[in-house]
């Protein structure tokens, strides 16, 4: 069962023309917003972003904490507390090869409406995967997952329960999925046209890159003790 410490931290984001997923983490008693860097690709870096709440988009001002050069991760902050401080450690420590994980987000803009149960925010969809392999790419730590990702999950959290722990930790950020170009056939013969076939291999980047960016520029919203 996905618990409120996770659900209350996941949001649908509109930045420029891109819609995706973001989530909050608390680090050294400050709150930050984490998403995939490509979700911000059409955002000018100065205007407000938008979050979906109470059945419409709301603009919020944000500051850029950092954007990774090696991973598909960006970290932002805002001037107010976006989510409750329910514990959700940002660490991939104890993540195991072949372990079950979950990821949350808003594929194709789909969501659930549970009203006040999620404080007026849309309910993210949740999917399950397993840790298929660990990988290095441009000095970034990549977790390849076996599952079925869809557009809109980008920027969402990959969560897991470490052995003997009762609570979820966030291990990674969803980036996308590997695809191959398959030919489109007509009458049993290949045509020059192709379609992008989802291989079921999900690409996610370690949350450690987000915490590294934060530690280089730790100016997130200070949380009440």
Short structural summary:
By secondary structure, this protein is mainly β. It has helices at 4-7, 208-216, and strands at residues 10-15, 18-27, 30-35, 49-53, 56-60, 62-67, 74-78, 100-105, 125-137, 140-146, 157-160, 169-186, 189-206, 221-222. The protein is globular and about 65 Å long.
Keywords:
6% helix; 225 residues; six-stranded antiparallel beta barrel; single chain; eight-stranded antiparallel sheet; Thrombin, subunit H; mainly beta
Describe this structure in words.
This protein has helices spanning 4-7, 208-216; strands at residues 10-15, 18-27, 30-35, 49-53, 56-60, 62-67, 74-78, 100-105, 125-137, 140-146, 157-160, 169-186, 189-206, 221-222. The two termini are 29 Å apart. By secondary structure, the protein is mainly beta. 38% of the residues are buried. It has one domain (4-222): Thrombin, subunit H, CATH 2.40.10.120. The longest helix is centred in the C-terminal third of the chain and has 9 residues, at 208-216. Strands 1, 2, 3, 4, 5, 6, 7 and 14 form an 8-stranded antiparallel beta sheet that branches. Strands 8-9-10-13-12-11 form a 6-stranded antiparallel beta barrel.
Per-chain topology:
Layout lengths: L3 H4 L2 E6 L2 E10 L2 E6 L13 E5 L2 E5 L1 E6 L6 E5 L21 E6 L19 E13 L2 E7 L10 E4 L8 E18 L2 E18 L1 H9 L4 E2 L3
Q: Major sheet, described briefly?
A: 8 strands, antiparallel
Shape: globular
| SSE sequence, one letter per element | HEEEEEEEEEEEEEHE
**Coarse structural class:** mainly beta
Mean pLDDT: 94
How far do the termini sit from each other?
Answer: 29 Å
* Residues in β-strands, percent: over 45%
The tally of helices reads 2
The unreliable regions are none
Number of β-strand runs:
14
- In the CATH hierarchy, the third-tier topology is known as Thrombin, subunit H
User: In percent, how helical is the residue content?
Assistant: under 10%
* Whole-number count of domains: 1
- In the CATH hierarchy, the architecture is Beta Barrel
Output the radius of gyration.
Answer: 18 Å
CATH class: Mainly Beta
């Amino acid at each position: 069962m996905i618990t409120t410490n996770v659900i209350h931290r996941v949001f649908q984001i509109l930045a420029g023309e891109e819609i995706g997923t973001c989530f909050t983490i608390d680090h050294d008693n400050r709150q930050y917003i984490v998403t995939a860097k490509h979700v911000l690709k059409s955002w000018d870096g100065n205007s407000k972003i938008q979050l979906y709440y109470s059945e419409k988009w709301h603009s919020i001002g944000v500051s850029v904490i950092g954007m990774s050069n090696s991973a598909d991760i960006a970290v932002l902050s805002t001037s107010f507390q976006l989510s409750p401080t329910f514990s959700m450690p940002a660490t991939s420590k104890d993540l195991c090869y072949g372990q079950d994980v979950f990821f949350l987000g808003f594929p194709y803009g789909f969501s659930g409406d549970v009203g006040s149960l999620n404080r007026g925010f849309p309910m993210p969809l949740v999917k399950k995967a397993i840790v298929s392999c660990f990988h290095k790419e441009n000095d970034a730590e990549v977790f390849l997952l076996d599952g079925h990702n869809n557009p809109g999950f980008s920027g969402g959290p990959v969560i897991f329960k470490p052995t003997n722990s009762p609570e979820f930790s966030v291990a990674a950020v969803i980036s996308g999925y590997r695809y191959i170009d398959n030919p489109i056939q007509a009458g049993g013969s290949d045509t020059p046209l192709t379609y992008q076939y989802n291989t079921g291999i999900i690409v996610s980047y370690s949350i450690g890159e987000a915490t590294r960016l934060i530690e280089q520029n730790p100016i997130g919203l200070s949380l009440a003790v």
